[in-house]
Amino acid sequence: MMEVTSYIRICRFLTVDIFEYRTMKYFLLAMYLVLSPLILLQGYFFLKKFELKYFVQYETIYMLSIYMWVSIYCQPYTTNIVKTYIDQIQVWKIEEAADAIKRKVKQTWIFITAYMCMTIALGLIAAISSSIPTSRDKDLIFFFKIAELYFPKLENLIMWCVKPAFFVSIYVGISTPGFTILYFHGHANLQKLMLKHCLKDINAKFEDLEYIRWNSVEYHKEIEEKLMFCVKRHIQLTENALRPLRLAQVYVFPLQIVGTCVMASVILVFFAFEGSLSDQYFRMVVLVLTTSAMLVGFAAGGQGIEDWSEEIYEALCQVEWYHWNLKNKKTYLFFLMNATRKFKIKYSENISLNYRLGLEIVKAIFSAMSVIYSLQQKKNS
């Protein structure tokens, strides 16, 4: 049976270490420089020849290209967010935790590792299916159409140069910042559980609180030391988390919007494309599943960060404080007020990255599907 540290190392490699290789950095830079003019060129053609049929044909790959471009741009920043946070705080090691905490932490890391591997597998299948030539490639992938129109002699060479890039670009797309948020959540979860254990342990030495004298110097001094340790630890964890969360608000939002647009564009192509797409169904299904897995990762990571502060507050409310002296009660009150601040990846006052937002996105996509299907039925009747 694998140890917790093995799961953490796997997740760290998939999230951080793989992007530290110089070859990967050069490859991403080359892709970024190639995608930039191609996206601008396709946008120009959309504006020059704006027809619904033309837009539907190439919208999916266009939105996917934008998603990859944004992912490559954000990758250095999102990776640095996690590395900086873990380096800045004096993290408790898993070896220092109690057995019950180790089991809970292991469950979290098993889930994160399984999710990452499943999403990578879906992305790999999507990349392979996109690399296999079909008769509709030029009608759906604008880059190939450009090669046919402007570089006919180099058409085959361009196609075989572009297709291998699908593998790296899709991996960057699914890992940035979805994997980063979950990796951050995995480490924060360990610190949360150990801090909760410290809070529960404040009165652990004094089982018969009813019989403790109010003037017991030993009792109140030990409570003060334990309480101050928890306060300082909470401040250290929360203050260092502010910058990563602020940066996540900037980088997650555009990726989530574009990712939703990719799913919506696939559905639009499926309902509104003129002609047969029978040879594209597998590609489309795998692409939708991969994009869905990415959005689920966003929501799960965001919800985990939101639950972090709420669980600390709930644990603090359960502390038996009523036997403490006035000084310790004031410290506890300060701690309680500080713990009321919730940590969220917020886009606005009413919108945060969590399960509720994911559900709203799913509802919006299904509503769009029903409207498009109704219009298609009216058109055919």
From TrEMBL:
InterPro entries: 7tm6_olfct_rcpt. It comes from the Eukaryota. Keywords: Cell membrane, Membrane, Olfaction, Receptor, Sensory transduction, Transducer, Transmembrane, Transmembrane helix. One of its GO terms (cellular component) is plasma membrane. It is a multi-pass membrane protein. The keyword Magnesium does not apply. It is found in: Cell membrane. GO terms for molecular function: odorant binding; olfactory receptor activity. GO terms for biological process: signal transduction. The keyword NAD does not apply. The chain crosses the membrane at residues 26-47, 109-128, 165-185, 251-273, 285-305. Belongs to the insect chemoreceptor superfamily. Heteromeric odorant receptor channel (TC 1.A.69) family. This is Odorant receptor. It comes from Zophobas morio.
